[in-house]
Amino acid sequence: MGVYILRRLALIIPTLVGIMLLNFLIVQAAPGGPVEQMIAQIEGHGGNTLARAGGGGGSEVATGSGDTRASRGLPEGLLDEIRTMYGFDKPAPERFLMMLKDYATFDFGDSFFRDKSVTELIVDKLPVSISLGLWSTLIIYLVSIPLGVRKAVYDGSRFDVWTSSVIVIGYAIPGFLFGMLLIVLFAGGSYLDWFPLRGLTSPNFEQLTWYQKIGDYFWHLALPVTANVIGGFATLTLLTKNSFLDEISKQYVVTARAKGLDERRVLYGHVFRNAMLIVIASMPGVLVALFFTGSLLIEVIFSLDGLGLLGFESVLNRDFPVVFGTLYIFTLMGLMLKLVSDVTYVLVDPRIDFDSREGA
Asked: Residue 225 and residue 130: Cα distance in Å, rounded?
């Protein structure tokens, strides 16, 4: 197992480089960029915009920023100054190599359009995304796994049919659309005004007692988490059910029942460990999706200033240090979570030997 872990850790480096290179090339081909945006602002609002836009750092970031129609008529020295300010005075290969060198030490530079470093921005937004993703993941697993087991035990029953209908309908409803419905119904839209519409805490949060702070925190999370999990039950529930059905039909289960073991002990003492392997394998994807991608529109709708909203705004503003910095971190976390899931495989089922499979 140790050799397998070392191999996987070594593969993380070329995988990261490949993903960063692919996105670098895509950005190079994309029209527009911070230089063009700055030129447009200067022409629209006057030269003082340049002094206010400060950005500094991030010279390693990639984008094509050649002359455009907007640049015509501006002094050549001003154009060169703008390119130098954003680091586009260097050729693309050099910028990419500088990016890799800085990212290897987790130096992501500074945002082009915010007066903060990329690391500070990520740290500021991380608590919101962790709160939304953590509680969504916890609720999905606490509901889906027991529900999937029960559906497998009562396969074909009325309970199995109506629960399948409910979770499939929930899966078909987009989370952002369900979030808008919750706002209309419960957040002062047209009917009830039970829940707050924006933020993770109330303005007077610091003046509350500790138990009031806990209540205020979950009061603000109630609607966003509900909207975020509505479509997450179907996949994990059906995956758990099918995995259990596959294990229940195997010979070792028939033998255990023939020996007179209690049905509960058969299900949770023998079947559960084997059936959970495929569920464990899907965990990294679920975590990455809920923490960083799946909650984007939910954050926008409920005015939650998290990583999803940060990434979305950075793409729109062509704030490439933030775009590439968050991409690097998300990719690294996804690869590490995948490795953790493989290690968990062995802890759950010691019969799995990755070393022997790698050498085969």
From this structure: 12
Q: Are 234 and 168 in contact (CB under 8 A)?
A: yes
Average pLDDT over residues 139-148: 90
Give 356's pLDDT tier (boundaries 50, 70, 90): low
Rounded to whole angstroms, how far apart are CA atoms 344 and 251? Answer: 25
Residue 57 pLDDT > 50? no
For residue 193, the SS3 value is strand
How confident is the model over 244-255, as a mean pLDDT?
83
- % the chain with pLDDT above 90: 7
Give the residue ranges of DSSP H helices in 30-47. 34-45
For the chain, helix, strand, coil in percent to 5 are 75, 0, 25
Are residues 179 and 294 in contact, defined by beta-carbon separation less than 8 angstroms?
no
Distance (Å, whole) CA 46 – CA 67: 19
Q: Which 3 state secondary structure label does DSSP give 18? A: helix
The Cα–Cα gap between 179 and 302 comes to 8
Distance CA 9, CA 272 (A): 30
The whole-angstrom separation of Cα 55 and Cα 109 is: 10
CB 280 within 8 A of CB 337: no
CA distance 184 to 196: 12
Alpha helices in 269-353 (DSSP H): 272-288, 296-301, 307-316, 320-348
Contacts of 6 (CB under 8 A, 6+ apart): none
Q: Residue 147: what pLDDT?
A: 92
Q: What is the gyration radius of the CA atoms in the chain, in angstroms? A: 26
Closest to 16 (Cα-Cα) out of 341, 283, 325, 335 = 335
CA distance 124 to 309: 12
**Which tokens belong to 167?**
């979770």
With beta carbons less than 8 A apart as the criterion, state whether 79 and 284 touch: no
d(CA 177, CA 171): 12
